[in-house]
């Protein structure tokens, strides 16, 4: 049985963005969660590299968040071709709530060489405050605790 290795192009493909934090590296994928102390838009990504071990090989990646999923695929490809698949999603993580994430590759007629899963917070387009800050401000103003609405015409995802 052949032993396949990553090449320079594969290593370059697997690099995570500068603003990303590595959550997993290996072959199988991961199940994890993300939690923030303030509402945050988070980008979650997966990249995977495999080598085709037979003709019509495919490499797919998938990110599951709740009942939603996003998929990416490379192939079908001939034997001994390097396959590269990636996918990224942006999701709002509400303050104090855990967001469960499952990210994994799947291959048909291919050997998975490496998979990386990463996450990075996107910068908001308006000032945000933590839940504790919002509650303290509301108490000081005699209002009900909670988060203010974003400025008109802007949303947490814009």
Structural summary, described in words:
The chain is mainly beta. The protein has one domain (8-140): Jelly Rolls (Sandwich), CATH 2.60.120. The chain is 10% helix and 51% strand. The chain contains 2 helices and 8 strands. It has helices at residues 8-13, 131-140; strands at residues 21-26, 30-35, 40-52, 57-65, 68-77, 82-93, 98-108, 110-122. A 4-stranded antiparallel sheet has the order 1-8-3-6, with no helix packed on it. A 4-stranded antiparallel sheet has the order 2-7-4-5, with no helix packed on it. The chain is elongated. The N and C termini lie far apart (50 Å).
Task: Describe what is shown at a glance.
It contains two helices and eight strands.
């Amino acid at each position: 049985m052949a032993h396949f290795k990553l090449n320079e192009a594969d290593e370059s493909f697997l690099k995570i963005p500068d603003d990303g934090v590595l959550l997993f590296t290996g072959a199988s994928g991961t199940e994890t969660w993300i939690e923030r102390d303030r509402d945050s838009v988070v980008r979650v990504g997966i990249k995977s590299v495999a080598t085709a071990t037979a003709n019509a090989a495919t490499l797919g990646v998938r990110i599951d968040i709740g009942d939603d999923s996003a998929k990416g695929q490379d192939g079908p490809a001939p034997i001994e071709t390097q396959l590269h698949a990636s996918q990224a999603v942006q999701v709002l993580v509400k303050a104090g709530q855990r967001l469960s994430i499952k990210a994994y590759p799947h291959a048909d007629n291919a050997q998975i060489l490496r998979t990386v899963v990463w996450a990075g917070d996107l910068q908001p387009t308006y000032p945000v405050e933590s839940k504790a800050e919002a509650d303290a401000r509301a108490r000081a103003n005699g209002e009900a605790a909670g988060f203010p609405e974003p400025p008109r015409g802007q949303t947490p995802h814009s």
